[in-house]
Design goal:
This protein is mainly β. It contains 1 helix and 11 strands, in the order βαββββββββββ. Helices cover about 5% and strands about 50% of the residues.
């Protein structure tokens, strides 16, 4: 069984700029232009190219983990996935994705250590959405996400409708 890590990167600044009246209702998010969202994973698991859609090579029993970030890596805006809705309502192709929260340690360079490998660490909690592949096929889904500014102020609720095509490895 393989573990496929998918990174979703949002151009949050442009999303916020283009949607000044974004939804404040988590059940009715604003639709976002897919060109402002980029998904990628390891090259040997991608069929075609990466983008707002992603075609994966996977086998039954493989795990897919989605993690989200912004182009500013959270310094200006943070994006947070909060709901998954799928065309695979019978869960024949993948299990219903669930959030998993894990503890981690993040290395940081020591201030003034330019040119040296000196670092310190910081503990943090991380999360991802995880699913198990059951069989090959195409899943159209919506991820709902919210964008917060650096002061944790909500900028809006959003969605886009990517798909994943799972091909046998």
């Amino acid at each position: 069984m393989a573990e496929l890590n998918v990174l979703i990167s949002f151009d949050a600044a442009t999303i916020v700029e283009q949607n000044p009246d974004a939804s404040r209702n988590p059940d009715a998010p604003t639709q976002v232009d897919g060109r402002l969202i980029y998904m990628t994973t390891r090259h040997d698991h991608i069929v075609g190219t990466s983008g707002a859609e992603l075609n994966l090579r996977a086998e039954p029993g493989d795990f897919i983990k989605w993690r989200e970030t912004t182009l500013s890596l959270g310094s200006e805006y943070k994006a947070l996935l909060y709901r998954y809705v799928s065309s695979d309502s019978q869960h024949r192709l993948i299990t219903t994705p669930e959030i998993e929260v894990v503890n981690g340690i993040y290395p940081l360079p020591k201030e003034g250590s330019e040119g040296r490998p000196d670092f310190e660490t910081q503990r943090y909690q991380d999360h991802y959405w995880r699913t198990t592949v059951k069989q090959p096929g195409k899943v159209v889904y919506h991820f709902y996400f919210q964008i917060l500014d650096r002061h944790r102020q909500l900028k809006g609720y959003f969605q886009w409708d990517p798909f994943i095509t799972i091909e046998d490895s």
